[in-house]
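A quick word before the example. In earlier lectures we treated sequence and structure as two separate objects. From today on, think of them as two lines of the same record. Here is F-ATPase protein 6 written that way.
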Amino acid sequence: MSMDTSIPSVMSMDSMTPGYPMSMDSIRAPSNYESHGIYEDHPGLNPNSERVVELQTEIHDTIRDLMANYDEHEIQAAAESVHAESADISFLQYSLTDLKENGIASESLKEAFHSLGIAQTAPSTSNSLLHLSEFLTIARCDASDSLSSPLDQFEIIPLMDMKIGDLYFSFTNPSLFMLLTLSLVLLLFHFVTKNGGGKSVPNAWQSLVELIYDFVPNLVNEQIAGNVKQKFFPCILVTFTFSLFCNPQGMIPYSFTVTSHFLITLGLSFSIFIGITIVGFQRNGLHFLSFSLPAGVPLPLAPFLVLLELIPHCFRALSSGIRLFANMMAGHSSVKILSGSAWTMLCMNDLFYFIGDLGPLLIVLALTGPELGVAISQAHVSTISICIYLNDATNLHQTG
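And the structure line, produced from the sequence above:
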């Protein structure tokens, strides 16, 4: 029987091994992972040969990453010792899983170090630097999955869907965090007023509630004239507290900034604008429209002045929503971009890059404080805008 000339070289190699079975299915994968053309040319030689070579190559690459500070010959010897040129797929998969889960401390790599007489600590580094190198290597491998677009934090994710007839309802992450914010505010005020009120030495939570409750009345008294301020004080207090807790929410990892979405801020601003307009008509009747036409204006100019006054008046709702949305989105995105840059440098397997990361990390920390201040100040600015609009609607641009 004749046989292809490319096969005897493999057969003769295995036939020299005492006790090696001559079955065609038992031929081992070659030790050279890059050159396995014999298995590609003759797929019937071993059906699992391609998978064997793939696992051996992956073991070799994993060990190369784990032993980045070792000599190339030591890496090659350790890799060959771990997979032992075995064609047992289950054994190779077990070894690969052990390496990926336990890293440099895996049992298979420890045995390879012991059998080859290789020191488990790389000669050019200390133990602490070796652990640091291992950490940075793992971080570098996961960096592509961990880093994402700065805008991904604003993604709306449906959590629960419900369909009633032709109507479709979806409970999303903004809905969840708005519900959590309202619950937190209500519980905070409830427990403070029930359990903490009247204490001569207030705790931190009571001090926070008292600070909010003292700040809003002062703001209302400064911006609104007349006795209408007391009537609308609860509404202004709720709006300020809701914005105060929603705006900085995105600074917490794995949270969601409700006020970073234009539709949400626009809905809030338009709702408040429509409510203020209704209040203006209730208190002043049709005389409320006099804000758009100052006294003494010639009749030919009246249509143009009315139009010029109505346009900026209606744009108040739009500008309030855009201002809050833009500040929250831009600020949180900036923190995410700088944090991603610092993380990228941390993932580089180099001690000098790690030391140099102090600069980006300090920048991130320095930016976090001002961004928190911007989030709080936007609640203040939004409340001032509401007070000004309410004063204009009730007093028709007259100040008290």
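Notice the following. The beta strands are 158-164, 167-172. We will return to this example when we discuss secondary structure assignment.
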